[in-house]
Amino acid sequence: VLNAVAVIPVMFYAFQLPPGPGSVTLLGYTIGVSIYGTAYIVVHDGVHHGRFPTGPLKNISYVKRISDAHTKHHKPSMGVPFGLFLGPQEVEAAAKGNEVAPIPLWLSRTLLFLTSLIMVDICMTKFDKD
Questions:
Q1: pTM tops 0.70, yes or no
Q2: Considering only CA atoms, which of 37, 21, 35, 34 is closest in space to residue 115?
Q3: 23 FRET partner, CA 20 to 30 A, in 1, 12, 46, 51?
Q4: 120: which residues sit within 8 A by CB, 6+ positions away?
């Protein structure tokens, strides 16, 4: 619910902007956050905690691995895994004694670039109107 409170106004704002790389990227961000939030609720609350029926989703092997990994997170130590969808990889790394990998450098730089693109495009659009 809090996700929607934050995302819907930004999505609406993206629709109000003139078409451009920044507005399209901003809209893409909001759609991506919405998809992730929906998937998180379905897998975490539906499949793992059983708060609502999820049908055959609980029978998918990767979804089962996510749920099993999340069970380890809910133990009193609240340790690995910290990420829901990457939980199985985090558990495997911890079992091997490896440090859990941070966000890949290519991904963090891509996100930084796209965020910069949004800001530049929106600023340029605002200055063009004035």
A1: yes
A2: 21
A3: 1
A4: 22
What pLDDT digit, counting tens, does each position of 54-77 carry? 999 989 998 988 888 888 777 776
41, 62, 60, 61: which is closest to 52 by C-alpha? 41
The residues, ordered by sequence, that sit 6+ positions from 114 with a Cβ below 8 Å of its Cβ are 25, 29
Q: What is the enclosing helix (H) or strand (E) of 80? A: none
CA dist 121 and 25 (Å) reads: 10
Q: How far apart are CA 5 and CA 19, in angstroms?
A: 24
User: What is the rounded CA–CA span in Å between residue 93 and residue 20?
Assistant: 41
